[in-house]
């Protein structure tokens, strides 16, 4: 087997959440290009259909599952759908997540809990449902414990740096990153669990940047590599972690953020302190 062969996923099956656009779509297409069949899920069926057509153009099978992925039962059901429709399950990419930035005093306990549920509980629900099916799909490779699969979580740089307005989102992504480390210990040696801490990536969430030269320049300036990331930067990392190429990596949070080690941009939210509100 050559080094490049280790990136192949021929005969494997993956589930990708939030797969209708952006990072989720990019990851799904990267896995398909490497040979995997893919279950695609997000809210919007039209977006999924477009991604599915691209997967099929690569010669792979695509199963569309429009769903409300904030519903833990619906997200967990994706694992069985993959196994029933495609015959096995090898890779899970937990990409669903996100939280709208908010000022401190507008971040209620309910808002914080909702962020945790959407970014962490969804990943846990799908992964928990997937593990028995991954074990049932395990291939004996003759070189140690059978590798049963890979779980890849999409986390964020905001899980380790501070930025105004990101309290709920950053706390949830920090929790997802540590969930990754803990789950990896629970599931070794058969299933690898890793996360990608994503920096600023040019997706629809950053459309405001594309049309605002000053904002884009400021974001590039705080990034050591002096550019906004591309979806393919994240997709390539997900493929590495999902394939045998990343088979000796588990419990790690891979920082794909252009070298960021300090906050991104503040969002112009007011500095709502107790003193100012008294």
UniProtKB/TrEMBL annotation:
InterPro entries for this protein: KR_dom (IPR057326), NAD(P)-bd_dom_sf (IPR036291), Sc_DH/Rdtase_CS (IPR020904), SDR_fam (IPR002347), Sec_Metab_Biosynth_SDR (IPR052178)
Similarity-based family: Belongs to the short-chain dehydrogenases/reductases (SDR) family.
User: GO molecular function: any one?
Assistant: cholate 7-alpha-dehydrogenase (NAD+) activity
Taxonomic path: Bacteria, Bacillati, Actinomycetota, Actinomycetes, Propionibacteriales
- Out of the domains of life, which is the source? Bacteria
Q: What is this protein called?
A: 7-alpha-hydroxysteroid dehydrogenase
The record's SMART domains line, in alphabetical order, gives:
PKS_KR (SM00822)
Q: List the NCBIfam families.
A: PRK07814.1 (NF005873)
Q: Which Gene3D superfamilies match?
A: NAD(P)-binding Rossmann-like Domain
Species of origin: Nocardioides marmoribigeumensis
Keywords attached to this Swiss-Prot or TrEMBL record, sorted alphabetically, are: NADP, Oxidoreductase
Q: Which residues form the Ketoreductase domain?
A: 12-199
Membrane-crossing segments per the record: none
Under the heading Pfam families, the entry gives: adh_short_C2 (PF13561)
EC number per UniProt: 1.1.1.159
